[in-house]
Specification:
alpha+beta; Fructose-1,6-Bisphosphatase, Chain A, domain 1; D-Maltodextrin-Binding Protein, domain 2; binds 2,5-anhydro-1,6-di-O-phosphono-D-mannitol; binds magnesium ion
Length: 342
């Protein structure tokens, strides 16, 4: 039997050390950004503690409340939302936060200092899967503020994705993972529960240029634009030369589907349709941070017409279609959507 071993270097590369070493390459760094990532990793561990025992402590099920985008709020959604806020409200490096679960900006309590960064997060993505014990996750996006001082404002939050200085997601799955990027590569860490530390397990992830998996909720097929329908039909056709048919995989948990796409290649799509012309996913909490990470790994992310990271947001909870994954697959999807391929 072959038991894979962690290399000695990986064994000592904790998330914390990785962040600090990354910061050393920026001579003007103050350590504040590292402190933010540290706070987020602590919040993630606290969320994981509840997610992993949800069935035992009456945390499954819903609160009967509907959030700003019309989703029923699960108990764990609310817990994760509060936990991330509480883990980050006092660190002194944020001027404002915004969460998918809250209609308005989340201000820093008056008793704590305000800082130069802005945090946006989806506290528990894929939460409709929780009761079935399927992978869920948290997603975060960090910007530098644009206003001078005081409480952060909408102007600080409504920045295009290209302005992100860091982004990441946490997967609560068979193991817990923390994936982050500051623009220089995407790096994955797995929690070693025996020591409570995230250890480097996926260094400088590179997404294949082209994959052989597509991921989309095909139940919406009849609501799609004919170009989108044609694209998916194309992926199912048999053609050895272009590696078709693609396999179909859809968890219905964006972080899980994008994580698989990041490692194996291929494409994840959530297109607009006749019911939801801008799709379902939120630009600021989901699409921007995931696009930042996938691009840092050599992939691409589009709304079907252009780069996700170049979209100038107008509202806090704005949605946008999402096509994300291997660069060649995303380009091909764009060509089909534009009617340039049939
Ligand atoms: P949410 O759980 O934060 O509300 O996110 C939306 C989820 C995504 O995780 C997932 O990809 C998508 O909704 C699935 O939607 P659908 O059920 O329409 O396929
Ligand atoms: Mg989500």
């Amino acid at each position: 039997m072959h038991i894979p071993q962690t290399s000695p270097a990986q064994k000592f590369m904790t998330l914390e050390r990785h962040i600090i070493e990354g910061e050393r390459s920026h001579p003007d760094a103050t350590g504040e950004f590292s402190a933010l990532l540290h706070g987020l990793s602590l919040a993630a561990k606290l969320v994981w503690r509840e997610v992993s025992k949800a069935g035992l402590v009456n945390m499954q099920g819903s609160t009967k409340r509907v959030n700003v985008t019309g989703d029923v709020v699960k108990k764990l959604d609310e817990f994760a939302d509060e936990t991330i806020y509480k883990a980050m409200d006092h660190v002194g490096h944020l001027c404002v936060m915004a969460s998918e679960e809250n209609e308005d900006l989340l201000q820093i309590p008056k008793q704590y200092p305000s800082g130069k960064y802005v945090l946006l997060y989806d506290p528990l993505d894929g939460s409709s899967n929780i009761d079935a014990n399927i992978t869920v996750g948290s997603i975060f996006s960090i910007f530098q503020r644009v206003t001078e001082s005081g409480n952060g404002t909408l102007e600080d939050v409504l920045q295009c994705g290209l302005k992100q200085i860091g982004a990441g997601y946490v997967l609560y799955s068979s193991s817990m993972m923390f994936i982050y990027s500051t623009g220089q590569g995407a790096h994955g860490f797995t929690l070693d529960p025996t020591v409570g530390e995230f250890l480097l397990s996926h260094e400088n992830i590179r997404i294949p240029k082209q994959g052989s998996i597509y991921s989309v909720n095909e139940g919406n097929f009849n609501r799609w634009d004919p170009n989108m329908q044609r694209y998916v039909q194309y992926l199912k056709e048999d053609d050895k030369e272009t590696g078709r048919p693609y396999s179909s995989r859809y968890i219905g948990s964006l972080v899980g589907d994008v994580h698989r796409t990041l490692l194996y290649g291929g494409i994840y799509c959530y297109p607009g349709d006749t019911k939801n012309p801008d799709g379902k996913l939120r630009l600021m909490y989901e699409n921007n941070p995931l696009a930042f990470i996938v691009e840092a790994a050599g992939g691409a992310a589009s709304n079907g017409k252009g780069r996700i990271l170049e979209i100038q947001p107008e509202t806090l909870h704005q949605r946008s279609p999402l096509f994300i994954g291997s660069a060649d697959d995303v380009r091909l999807a764009e060509e089909f959507l534009a009617g340039k391929r049939t």
